[in-house]
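Design request, tokens follow.
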């Protein structure tokens, strides 16, 4: 059973890779443009991450 589960996971991963390969247009989005589209600001995000790090 464990071997079947492992093979099923590998098959699922392979299917996902093939689907992504088949539908990839090659277009890429710059991180800053994506953040802007979602209303995020890099400086604010970095400040939040720095604040979280200082709490650890």
């Amino acid at each position: 059973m464990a071997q079947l589960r492992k093979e099923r996971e590998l098959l699922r991963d392979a299917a996902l890779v093939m689907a992504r390969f088949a539908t990839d247009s090659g277009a890429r989005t710059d991180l800053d443009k994506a953040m802007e589209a979602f209303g995020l600001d890099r400086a604010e995000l970095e400040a939040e991450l720095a604040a979280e790090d200082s709490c650890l």
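Comment from the thread starter after seeing the answer: thanks! The CA atoms of residues 14 and 20 lie 10 Å apart.
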